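Appendix B, record 7
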Amino acid sequence: EVQLVESGGGLVQLGESLTLSCKVSDFPFSSYTAYWYRQAPGKEREQVAFVNPGGAHTKYLESVKGRFTISRDDAKSTVYLQMNSLKPEDTAVYFCYVPIHWGQGTQVTVSS
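C-alpha cells (predicted):
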C-alpha cells in the first residue's frame, strides 16, 4: 500500500522558518513529479510547488516564490519544502502528493 507521511509542521512566528518532509513508501518515487499543496480554512486546496523526477525543474505558487524551496531525495523517497520568511497567510494544512496519492496533511500555523 502506498503511504505518504508528512512531518515538520507546527506553530511559528511571523518571519520564522519551517521545513516539511514527506516520506513516500511502496511507490516508484524517483520516476514521478512530487507536489506540495495547501488548504487554508474555507479556501480551495492550491498547489504550492512541484519538483520533477531528478529535481532539475521546479515551479512555485507566485505568492511563495523566493521564500519556499522544494527539493527531493530519491534515495530516501522523500520530498521536502523549506519555508522561510513565513507569513500569517501561509497558515494552512500542507499536503504532499504523488500521482494519485495524497498524504494526510500537516498543519502550519504562522502567528503575527
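Remarks on this record: The mean pLDDT is 97. The chain has no helices and eleven strands.
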